[in-house]
Design brief:
Number of strands: 11
Largest sheet: 5 strands, mixed
CATH architecture of the largest domain: Orthogonal Bundle
Shape: globular
Number of helices: 10
Distance between the termini: 33 Å
Number of domains: 2
Order of helices and strands: EEEHEEEHHEHEEHHEEHHHH
Structural class: alpha+beta
Oligomer: single chain
Strand order of the largest sheet: 1-4-5-3-2
CATH class of the largest domain: Mainly Alpha
Strand content: 15-25%
Helix content: 25-40%
Radius of gyration: 19 Å
């Protein structure tokens, strides 16, 4: 992933959804330029894409980019080409639209601390919307469980109801590729904390314990926000076959493969400490999933 796109803003409208600055550009306004709030969000998006590709998980494609504006300093960002074919009338229907349609009093604009956003409600969509397809030969529910277990691997804490959805077209709905992984791999923590956790003799502070505290965006049946490791157990309980399928694929990832992905990013996009920490974090989550 050594090629870096060069991006300048044209007359495209700024994308409104989400909390990061981003805008569509290009002749057909089908390329999205997105800026991470911190530099770590950019590399997290790139690593997540490369890992998803390695695991055959349908994923929006991300590339490293540099945004330039006259008389201003260049800014690192990522570019993603739209997976929606607007010329064919396709559009993305985020999960919150459908959850609000099928669940009474569901508040679609409440992204976080949305207690009605539950695992059972999310997977229930696949039953109530009727005919729906998956991608790359997967069933829709198999594909979705793959997204959730992938979230555990990369410690993605941002699978809220606007960060996944379905694509409508002239054919039946299909589950959209996974996208927006900028809040994964603890990419926002400071360098000092990374070093401290890697060097600590306190098991309660080491990375292997740190990963157990990562939270999902989903709530359990008890009304409590699920941690990512708890969510993986819920997946395994209710969808054992689908879960085992993805756990097997994740288990086959070799440390060398993961390390090569991390080191494939352009020079200067990650510090040496970030690379070491990220590898250990992913391996810790992989080890947990293997234990299931």
């Amino acid at each position: 992933m050594s090629d870096i796109k060069r991006v300048t803003r044209d007359d495209s409208a700024t994308e409104q959804q989400g909390t990061k600055e981003k805008f569509w550009y290009g002749e057909h306004k089908d390329k999205l330029c997105k800026f991470g709030k911190v530099h770590g969000e950019n590399w997290a998006e790139l690593i997540a894409y490369l890992l998803a590709t390695q695991l055959d998980i349908p994923c929006a494609r991300y590339q490293p980019a540099i945004y330039t504006e006259q008389d201003r300093e260049s800014i690192k960002c990522v570019v993603s080409e739209s997976f929606i074919n607007r010329s064919k009338g396709e559009r993305l229907i985020n999960a919150n639209e459908l959850l609000a349609k099928y669940e009474r009093s569901y508040e679609p604009s409440e992204i976080y601390k949305q207690r009605k956003y539950t695992f059972s409600g999310a997977v229930g969509l696949f039953k109530v919307i009727g005919l729906c397809n998956g991608l790359q030969g997967y069933t829709p529910i198999q594909q979705f469980i793959g997204y959730l277990l992938f979230d555990i691997l990369i410690a993605n804490q941002d699978r809220h109801h606007e960060n996944w959805g379905f694509v409508s077209s002239s054919k039946p709905l299909y589950l959209a590729p996974t996208f927006d992984h900028g809040a994964s791999m603890a990419c926002r923590i400071l360098e000092k904390e990374r070093v401290s956790r890697m060097q600590s003799a306190d098991k309660g502070y080491q990375i292997s314990h740190f990963v157990t505290s990562a939270k999902s965006a989903m709530y359990g049946s008890s009304g409590k926000l699920l941690k990512l490791h708890e969510l993986s157990k819920v997946c395994k309980l209710h969808y054992p076959e689908e879960s085992q399928f993805w756990i097997n694929k994740i288990s086959l990832l070799q440390e060398e493969q993961i390390n090569n992905i991390i080191h494939s990013l352009p020079s200067g996009w990650m510090t040496a400490i970030e690379k070491q920490f990220t590898l250990r974090l992913i391996l810790a989550n992989q080890s947990f999933l293997k234990s299931l």
